[in-house]
Specification:
Shape: globular
Distance between the termini: 32 Å
Strand order of the largest sheet: 8-7-17-18-19-16-20
Structural class: alpha+beta
Radius of gyration: 25 Å
Helix content: 25-40%
Number of strands: 21
Length: 506
């Protein structure tokens, strides 16, 4: 039986010194460099103990890849439009911020795949990362054809002794089920989800249980059937969004940070970090005076350096490495990940031909078959946006992938919108004319290296270990946590907790 006295004694120091800890926390000042979701979550966690957090965001608005767009008077998601429900971390944050009643699930329209000989077809339901559990299913045959189906069926005949363990998703699928399954089913999913070719995807990260199930089942399709349990869930069913847009999460985080007495400064790019005794000095570029994130007035961002007890780096990888270089020399030995450049062109259309949602919630493309890598029919996917749009339609066209510059990169906004309209017409299989375009919005991102890319996990671990050795420093963000809010949010909280513990208890 547990000794009550021992338990009370172990908790006593914390309880006895609670007022002292509160006073100590109130004197702490923590700089957070980067005002994306990772930086905001970390700042909120620091401010929650009574410490003062100052977020420095280089852009004119906080949020990073979570940002709103506007065209023809309609506001929509111009960046991340949803979050993965796995782990429950993002939903817990949303509920804590009082946004739980705004959570919405996508409409069950399903997606299509384009760039196959027949032009386009619905993306088969079920399966895993595009790998089918039953290659003879009608929706699978429609994409890979009978030749691809018979080749995929050979997977069931290959002796178990030839299975082994393959780290590359693309190589595994090609060896077991043939190139058509890899190129027409798996590649559209991997480039759409991870912005990377399946040959570059680590099976053990993207589908951790797949290799073990393959060994048990004796075939890849059998492994998928075992892991999915015959589920007919459509791709994308494991995500949710917010009515009004995911930018509502950013606004709520900024409001919480300010309510706790901390601040978010935008247009405040950090130029350098200096070690100053036991603290840190942050220098903001003099040409970019800081402002309060919601534009309510000056944030008081000085050109002179400011002193902080600790720094949390929540910027993109290139910026974080530049600022960390003088203080974490070991980081130079860790290779940087390649970060794909992504552009999203959102079109607001007066196109009644789209009322029937001819390609469901959107289209993924076979790599090399189209200029765009994916399309989302947002007003077909999100009922709240359809209601606000009235008779209009909102379509997002995505460009760029791992090792491939966006086709829109060298175009001005008008030309980029024209290209997006042409691609939307081709991918949706309908005629969309220039006069139907009511407005457009263009957003650009440098995406962190996808977490499922081969070698990415090892690079993240090595980088994190090097940074953890530096006192008074922490780092978070997609380049360390992995991409997606479901990974970014818990990592940011963990890094904030690490720095809080170090500051309060040493």
């Amino acid at each position: 039986m547990t000794d009550p006295g021992a338990k009370a004694g172990s908790d006593a120091p914390e309880a006895a010194h609670a007022p002292e800890l509160a006073e100590r926390a109130a004197r702490l000042r923590v700089a957070v460099v980067g005002g994306g979701i990772a930086g905001l979550v970390a700042a909120e966690a620091v401010a929650a103990i009574g410490a003062h957090a100052t977020v420095f965001e280089a852009q004119g608005r906080a949020g990073g890849a979570v940002q709103p767009g506007e065209a023809d008077g309609l506001v929509f998601d111009a960046g991340a439009e949803s979050f993965a429900v796995r782990g429950g971390h993002v939903r817990a944050l949303i509920d804590d911020l009082g946004l739980g009643d705004r959570v919405r699930t996508p409409q069950p329209g399903g997606a299509w795949v384009a760039g196959i000989p027949s032009g386009a077809a619905p993306l088969p339901k079920g399966g895993l990362l595009g790998i089918p559990a039953n290659p003879f299913a009608e929706d699978v045959r429609r994409v890979i054809g009978w030749r691809g189906t018979w080749r995929a069926w050979l997977d069931r005949l290959r002796p178990p002794l030839t299975i082994g363990h393959d780290h590359s998703l693309g190589r595994l699928v090609r060896k077991r089920m043939g190139p058509r399954v890899r190129d027409r089913l798996v590649a559209p999913v991997s480039t759409g989800v991870y912005s990377a070719h399946p040959d570059d995807i680590d099976v053990d990260v993207a589908a951790p249980a797949l290799n073990a199930a393959l060994t048990r089942a004796g075939s890849l399709s059998g492994a998928v059937a075992e892991l999915t349990g015959g589920s007919e869930r459509a791709p994308g069913a494991a995500v949710q969004g917010l009515e009004g847009g995911m930018a509502g999460l950013v606004d709520a985080l900024v409001a919480r940070i300010e309510l706790l007495g901390s601040e978010v400064r935008t247009a405040a790019p950090v130029e350098a970090l200096y070690r100053d005794g036991d603290g840190w000095t942050v220098r903001v570029a003099e040409s970019a005076p800081a402002e309060v994130a919601d534009g309510a007035g000056p944030g008081g961002g000085p050109a002179e350096p400011e002193l902080f007890d600790a720094v949390i780096l929540a910027a993109d990888e290139a910026t974080a490495r530049r600022l960390l270089a003088p203080h974490v020399p070991a980081l130079a030995a860790v290779a940087a990940g390649s970060s794909p450049r992504i552009e999203i062109v959102t079109l607001v259309l007066d196109a009644p031909v789209l009322d029937a949602a001819p390609r469901g919630s959107g289209v993924l493309t076979v790599p090399g078959s189209h200029t765009a890598k994916a399309l989302t029919h947002s007003t077909a996917k999100w009922a709240w946006l359809r209601e606000r749009a009235g008779s209009r339609h909102v379509v997002r066209v995505s460009f760029g992938s791992q090792g491939e510059e966006p086709a829109t990169a060298a175009l001005d906004d008008e030309a980029a919108a024209a290209l997006a309209l042409a691609e939307a017409s081709a991918l949706l299989g309908v005629e969309l004319r220039p006069e139907q375009l009511r407005g457009s919005h263009r957003s650009r991102f440098v995406q962190a290296q996808p977490s499922a890319v081969l070698g990415a996990a090892e690079r993240r671990s090595a980088a994190a270990a090097a940074i953890a050795d530096a006192p008074g420093l922490a780092a978070t963000g997609a380049w360390l946590s992995g991409t997606g809010l479901a990974q970014v949010v818990p990592h940011a909280r963990a890094e904030a907790e690490r720095i809080r513990h170090a500051l309060l208890w040493g």
